[in-house]
Each structure stands twice: as structure tokens, then as C-alpha cells.
Design a protein that fits this description.
single chain; alpha+beta; two-stranded antiparallel sheet; two-stranded antiparallel ribbon
């Protein structure tokens, strides 16, 4: 009789969906950021391409007024 052993399979879990574009993110793929408010965003990590996190920051920041 063959002994049964625990085998680790490739399991991917849904981490969350992007707060900006609603794309689902899984645990086995990269390209997502979680901020301090526990919101998940897409991140492309390429130069010259704006990600959902960059768009969120641009929309969120208040321009500085000269006093």
C-alpha cells in the first residue's frame, strides 16, 4: 500500500479587485499594490505607462496653492 503524502498544488487565490478599474488580482500574479486604506490597485512597473495607482494618486492629491 502506497503512503499518502501531502502534495502542494498550485493554488491561486483572488486577492481583491482593483479599486479604480475593477480588475481581479490573484495571488500567483504580480502587478498590484495595497495602500494604507486596504484598497487594491493595478501597477504596471513600466516606464511611461500610468497605472491605476498613479491615476488614483493624481485624482486624490490636492494642488498646492501659493499663499
Amino acid at each position: 500500500m502506497k503512503k499518502k503524502t501531502w502534495s502542494k498544488t498550485n493554488v491561486s487565490r483572488v486577492v481583491g479587485s482593483c479599486h479604480f478599474c475593477k480588475k481581479e488580482h490573484t495571488s500567483n500574479e504580480g502587478g498590484w499594490i495595497i495602500n494604507a486604506e486596504h484598497k487594491v490597485f493595478c501597477e504596471t512597473h513600466t516606464e511611461g505607462v500610468s497605472s491605476c495607482f498613479d491615476k488614483y494618486l493624481k485624482r486624490r492629491t490636492v494642488p498646492f496653492n501659493d499663499w
